[in-house]
Amino acid sequence: MIVDVVDPIEHRPGGALIPRVYIIGPTQRTGLGRLLLNAAIEQAGAMGLFRLWLDVMASATAARRAYARWGFREIGRRRYERPVKADLSEWLS
Question: Which of 21, 28, 42, 77 has the largest CB neighbor count within 10 A?
Answer without folding.
Answer: 21
